[in-house]
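A favour, since you know our structure tokens better than I do. Go ahead and set the record down below.
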Amino acid sequence: MAGSQFLHESRPQRVHFARSGAADVLRSEIDRLGASRAMVISGSSRSESVERMTKGLPVVLKYDDIAMHVPLPVAERARVAALQCEADVIVSIGGGSTTGLAKAIALATGTPIIAVPTTYAGSEATAVWGITEEGRKTTGIDIRVLPTSIVYDSTLTLTLAVSDSVASGFNALAHCVDSMWGPRTDPIDRMYAAEGIRALSRSIIAVAADGTDLDARDCAFYGTYLSAVAFSSAGSGLHHKICHILGGAFDLPHAQTHTVVLPYVLAYNAPAAPVAERQMAAAFGSDSALSGLEEVRRAVDAPRALRNYGVTEADIDAVIPHILDHAPADNPRPVTFRSIQKLLYAAVNGDDPANSTDESDVE
């Protein structure tokens, strides 16, 4: 650190870790804001828990028109609904799609958000928004979309299937890995990311072994928060650019896409980022970052191939130019058509990530 220079910006946000206490904390946060007209966004599958959590609150609208990747028509309908009910606070209860829709409203209206996550998506701790239109997902950064408060209650994740919990945890791990070489990364981001890797790699395995383990799910939320804070500061790296484009183009499940693609991007970038690689390896408790990630993937039988979600090699070439247009200019290794093609073909087929790249891939 001697002689180093960097700027690190922290985002203002209240974060509650409140096992079994979400309802009380949510009430206090609405009171703190002085809000009196809450719009609650949540999937209909969580209606019973939402009813319990929001009982007695000043709710003027409960809204469940939610879709992955926040398609523009879905965002526009939600914005109209928020304006018509004159909401002065948005309460999002659910996963990344729910938080993403709340952000789409806030981006247009400036209405504050209280996020109650039920997955490990991490969107609740970032100022990043994303909207999909005609198969293209556009993302941006705006402080208006950063939730004013987060309420983490691990009991709300108990209904999340173990397989979905695992994939969601890998989504959070992806935030950590990308934060190691994101375009604005700094030593503080990397410290958060490394601690996030430690927490998530252990908690993902523990949740897979026992889905009722609330200590493990608390730890997963802890790692998720650290990963998202690091990512929000460091910025979106190559992995997220690839996954956002694939998700928008092929309507892929968000967390599973991250789970499949992550080891291939790690294998590609790690040789060109030795300091970050050593930090990640230490955080995994392994000889290398890739072997550490692979140990976790094997332990939980994580998703391994994009072809299992309907993507073929023939689909890939059409989206590579879009990936090249959005790849970070300062990615640790140069990004070329051939290198991305080889990386994604391997991800489609579930090939061994260790054999998915070599120096000849970079022209």
